[in-house]
Structure formats: C-alpha cells, structure tokens
Amino acid sequence: MQEDARLAYLEAMGITNWMPRQELCGVPARAPYTMPVVVAPERVLATLAPRHSVPEPVSNPTAKAAEAVRQLRADTAEQKTAPVVAVPTVAAPIEQPLPVAPPIEPFYLQLWLAGPCALLTEAPEPGLESAMPAFHLLQDILRAVGLPSRPRLLADFRWPLSRNPQLDRSADGAHRGLLAFMQGRLEGQELVSLGCFGPATGLLVETDISKTVHLQGREVALDALPAAWFAADLEVLMREPQHKALLWTQLRRIKARWQGMV
Questions:
Q1: In the CATH scheme, what is the code of domain 107-257?
Q2: pLDDT category of residue 195 using cuts at 50, 70 and 90
Q3: For the whole model, what pTM was predicted?
Q4: Most buried residue among 9, 81, 166, 229 by CB atoms closer than 10 A?
C-alpha cells in the first residue's frame, strides 16, 4: 500500500498519526490524498436489474436492504418462469472399429546358402536337412545348374512369430515379417540370386497368399535382396513332372548369373 493511501485510511478511521513538530530537513511536504469515489448502492442495484426501476431510497438502512432482497427474489422468480428453449444436441460420431484382417495358416520356411545363390524352401516341419526325398531333389537341382550340391542351412522362419493371438497374423503381417527376416539374414552376403520353393515364399512379394501361385516361373526384383525366382513346392515337383519342366526352363535362363563364380 502506498504511504498516502495508508495515511488517508488511518485518518478516516479516526487514528491520530504521530507527526514531527518541525519539518525535517530535506523531506518534501506530503501531498493531500484524494479519497476514491464510492458508488452508491442504488446504482449497483440498477446494474443488476436494468429492466426494473429502482425504488426511491429510504432513510432506514434495514428497509433499504429488505428492498434489495425483494428485488433479487423477484428477478430470480422471473428467470424460473421464463420458457426454457431446448438447445439441440449434436451426437458424437460413433467410432467404428477398424476391420481386422483374417489370420493365415501357419507355415515353416528354411533358408539355405549354396554358393552365390540363396534358397528359401517351404517345409511341413523341421527335418528337410535330413535324408528326405525333398532334400535329395533339391541337391539334384543344385547339381544340374552348377551350384554346390550340399547347401548350408542358414536360418529358419516360422509363422506366426508368436503365440500371442493379439498380434497381427494376417498375410500382410507375414509379408512384412518375412521381408525383414530375409533382409536381416542375407545382409552382407555376396549373392546374385534367390530361389524360392513353395507358395508361402511368395509372401516376399504379395500380401495376399492366394495370389502367390501366379509367381511360379517368374522372377521379381526385391528391395535390399537379390532378384528372386519362384518355383513350386519341392513335394509338388516330385509328384508333378510338368512343374519340373517349367523350373528347368527357368533355370536355363538365369543360371548364367552364377556360372564362373562357383
């Protein structure tokens, strides 16, 4: 609080200030303080209820307070009796749950290395590396195209990656997972070709497993991976000779990539 205001409030309350009898040397004289203008209660009531005339002020303070209370009660009763206008409410849009892609059947893949060529084969269960007819067929194919007939098992891939049913088990999720698996396993490998046997290997390209059968006999360029060529499953190659003829035509066209490198 400023000194002038403090002295004025003390004077209004009848409190005598102790003042020096003689003026102090070097002290400027105090300027008189002007009291602020006090708004009359009638004006306050007029601002609260501008639609009603304020009655003539009475000399009795109790009657004045009672009149103000009656005026406020009248205003409150008028507000209660006024018609209530219904405000239309806008319903919040209901968020529709995102469609969940259906899961695909589990599958198992094995990744092999045969010199400058990598092989991704679909197998029913672990065990292709043992003395099975499908493994012997794979050795015959490698020998026929000039690749090492004893490939080295590098890694395997099993889908789904986890038993947790809340994780994405759709074909799109398998596509992303398989592509990341291949890029990580083959990073730094000096490869010129990638052979894929089985429909599940087509998830490297497609996000719909029903379309992977159309990849057989084709060659597709992949990101951060060597060009991949697709063939039927090894079990199908043993049963159906027409698939062997298609595969041999395809290998005769692309085997020049690794000839001279083995």
A1: 3.40.470.10
A2: very high
A3: 0.61
A4: 229
